[in-house]
Structures are given as C-alpha cells and as structure tokens.
Specification:
The complex is a heterodimer of chains A (about 500) and B (about 110). By secondary structure, chain A is of the alpha+beta class. Chain A contains 18 helices and eleven strands. In chain A, strand 3 and strand 4 form a beta hairpin. Helix content of chain B is about 55%, strand content about 15%. The chains are: A alpha+beta (about 500), B alpha+beta (about 110).
Amino acid sequence: MWTDLRHRLRALFRRRTVEGELDDELAFHLERHIEKLVAAGESRAEAERRARTELGGIEPLKEDCRDARGVGLIESLVQDARYGLRVLRRSPGFTAVAIATLALGIGANTALFSVVNGVLLHSLPYPAPDELVALHESKPFFERGSISYPHFRDWQRLNQTFAAIAVGRRNGVSLTGLGSAEQLRADYVSSDTFALLRVAPILGRGFVPGEDEVGAAPVALVGEGFWQRKLGGAPDAVGKTLLLEGRSTLVIGVVPASFDVQAPGFRASDVYLPIGQWRNDLLLARSAGLGIHGIGRLKPGVTVEQARADLARVTRALAATYPDTDKDIGASVTPLREQLVGDVRPLLLVLSGAVGLVLLIACVNVANLLLARATGRTRELAIRGALGASRGRLARQLLTESVLLAIAGGGLGVLLAVWGTSSVLAALPMTLPHAAPSASTVASSFTPWRSRSSPVCSSAWRCAASRRPWPPCPASRRSRCHGVRSRSSATTRPGSGRPGGRGRRA
Amino acid sequence: MSDPRIDLPQGTLDLLILRTLALGPQHGWAISERIAEISEHRLQVQQGSLYPSLHRLERRGWIKARWKISENNRRAKYYDLTAAGRRQLEAQEDEWKRLTAAVALVLRGLRKA
C-alpha cells in the first residue's frame, strides 16, 4: 500500500529521474543483447537491428512502463491539458466565444439558483422552522394589520393550538450616561420571543413570563454587538444598569450576534426590552394600531389551517364580548417562510426554468462550435491517428480540451454569478413586501461563497454536467474515422513488431 | 511443423520473474535469459512485456530495484525479491500447481469418457 503510493508519487514528481533511469535500463538491455549476438557471430549492424526488433518499439515499451508505474493516466492528462491550452490559445476567437457562452449560461443559473436556494429552499435559521407562523390582525382595509396589545394577551390566553405566541415592535430608544448619548436600535418584545425561536442568551438569562407586563420592573437584554461595543464584552455586564429613555434598566442577558430574526415586528437590535416597558398611551387600547406584529410556534402536529380555525374561534368570541372595538377583527396566520418569500415563489420558479433553458442553449451552441471546429481539425487528427494514437487516446485529448473550456466557462460563470446574485436581489425586495427591511441580511447569506457553498457546488456540478453529453460527439466522430487508418498504418511501421497501433505519443 | 517455443499464458510472466529472482538479484536482460535457459529455450519472454511487468511488480512492493555494477562492468538496474515478494511467490506457485493439477484432471477425465 505505502510502497505503491511512494512509487507512484516518485514517478509523478521525480519524473525526469525516473525517465532517465528507464532510458538507462533499456540501453543496458540493448547493449547486453547486442554483445551476446555479436559473440554468437552476428555482425555488429545486424546484431543491433535484431536486438531492437526483439525489444519491440522503444516508445510504446516506455509508454507501457509508464502505465505500469500507475501514473500513465495522470501524465497523459497533464500532457493533454498542456496541449489543449496551446490549441485553445491558437484560436482565441473560438475560445472566447465558447467560454463566454458557457459563462453566461452557468453564471445566470448559479445566480438564480443562489437566490432560489436562499429564498425557497433554505429553511429559516431556527429549530423546527415549519412550526413558525407570522401573526397579524386582519381588519377592514388591512389584511395584515398590527395587533393591539390587549388582543395579543387575549389570543395568548384563549388559543389552543399554539405552543407560544410572541409580539414585537421595532423602535429606537435613547441611551444616556454611558459615554455620549446615543439612539439605539431597539425591539420591544414579549417574554416568550426568545424561547419561541429557541435562541438562548450567551450570557445571563432570557425574559421570564410576567416580565413583559405593563408596570413590571425595567429589564433589558442586549445584543452581542452592543455588549462588545459599549460594555467591553465584560461578563459582569449582566447585573449592570443602563439609562434607557431616562429610566434605569437592569441588563439581564446577552443575545448572540447570530440572532437575526426576520419577521414583521422583530429585528436584530442593540437592546431588547419587554413590550410592557413601551410607554405609549395607546398600548392598552383594544383598537390601537401601533405596528405590533406577532409570531407563533404551532404545537407539534398542528396544521396552519387548524391554527387559523382556532384563532377565528377566539376572535369571534372576542367580537361577541367587545362588539364596539372587536367587531370586524380577525387573525391572519401565515407560515413564516411564506410570509418572507411572499409571492416571489412562482416568479423564481419560472425564472429558474428559463435560465435552465438558457444553459441548454449555451451547451448546444458550444457543441455546435466544437463540431464545426472538429471538421477543420480533420488533418491534425488524421496525423495523430497515423502516428498510432488509439481512438480512446484521441477521444481523451478532445475531451480534455472540452473540459478546459468548461472549467474556464464555469470559473467565469461563478464570477458572473457573484455579481448577478446581488443584482437579482436588488430587484427582488420590491416584490418581497414583507421581507424588504431584511433584504440586506438575506443578501449576505445568498452570496455563492457563503450559503453553505451549495450554489457553487451546484454550478460546479452544472459545468461538469453541461459539458458531459456534448464533447463526445465530436470526439467519437473523430476517433471513428481515423481509428481504421491508424491501425493499418501502425502495422506497417518498421520495427514496431507489435501490430495494433500501439505507438501512442502522437 | 511444431515450434518448440510456447507463448506465455496471461499472468504467468509475473510468476516466472519472481521465481527467477528467488535465486538472487538480477537485471532485466539476465532475467529473460535465465528464463529461456531454464526452460531449455521453450519459453521466450517477450522483452516488450518484461519491463512493464518488472515496473508493476516493483510498484506492488514485491521486488525492489538497486543500481549496481554488472558482470560486464556497467551500471545496471538489479531487481531483488522483497519479503512480500517471497510470500507472493509462494502463493502464486501454490495457485499455479493447483490450477495445472485441476486442468490435468479435467483433461484426463475427458479422455476417459
């Protein structure tokens, strides 16, 4: 096993030494043989001729030895690649067109797949994301209106299908008494928010039930970024107080920077405060529209329809109890992913179908170019065939050239895709009404380099797959018409002694 | 007319090389000469296939090569059996005997029938 590997590596990396040794070995053999024949009474010239004949063709023999070393394939691959590069460089027009065509096809596909992957296939970054829904109040003129605080409490208390319901309201709060005064990104949330999304604080604790009630003692969670920036990342930051909106607020924990909630009403913030701390005169009004939106986690096994029916029951009951304020109020329940993706899904699917066709057309075009070129190369291949290159060898050489084109096209395509992805995303937010504010964060996870590299894998796969079916056409065409000729010419080669077109280094 | 020389069946060349080297280190040319001599010139090693075989055996670690001064005072590549090669030789020899014995049995049986 080890000997084998060491042997192959030596053959690969100390190629010149190994080749020199082979030359010496064969030269010694010939000399020794000639000596023997001369000793038996042959003339020197005749002995030399016979010795060579008995050894067979030197070059094919060397080739066999290279194969025996186990690196013949790699060596000929390197050789083909070098030769292929030379050939491509000699016809820059063809090369440029072929690479550009492939790059466009692959680039468009990769860009769009990156987006599709991010938007449609990527699940939300929380455990059991399919249980998550976005909650809104549906009222006349507002299909997805904001939820009033009292309604939230009622829904929370009366529903039977949710494991938890949480609400949030994006806001800004002032920070004083810690360096210069500052306006912070803040999110007023209900106690269950972090538990619902199953995000644990990296330091301290999360909110506990009741802490979000109006009138509770002021506490706050801080984001990791804020903790690093303003609190020096100190572990004892928990237990300190901050002056937020002029009120002394106790820091109880630190939320990880990876927390990047994308739902209406919520956002990654510097500080997270209990919704009850929001000093707004209308907070307790049943009919207030204050921009509060909710998320919910369904109990395991509960469908969205069941949750809708459940909340419909709750809102009907509330409308009966509070006919003045709750008369036309319903609840809107949407899977969170659908809420974020909006109506883009069919559009994206159609687009990805379209770019798939573009890639197909690109492949056909390049295959055509290759075929046309193959006709012009008849002569070259005929000569190679005549020199003893086997059909397989010729096909391998042409395939190598095609693969070179594919790699160049694929590489350029990925570059195009990086640029294309951002422009697709720039076009998307308009059609992503509910995800618009988070588009930039979505974008960061879409770039082909970051989103688990799967789009890049896909494009690598694509450029491999896209080239696979096509190049063999010209390749087999070539090798078929010249295989016959090569064989007959090889048999007539003087001194080869081994019919069947063995000489390969054409 | 009958040619006294026999073409080597596939795979037997390796066995012959290993067996020859069991007698002591040799270079390629001497190996082919030795095989011819011992077989009373009935077996003719195709020199074109000798060297690829040697290289393959070397890669498998059954023989190892060393440059030494030859009997006619020149640098030559000498091959020698390794421990693994010795084991391989025994195994192959054994296999060969069983194969020929079995083939002989079948041929005898067919003649009787």
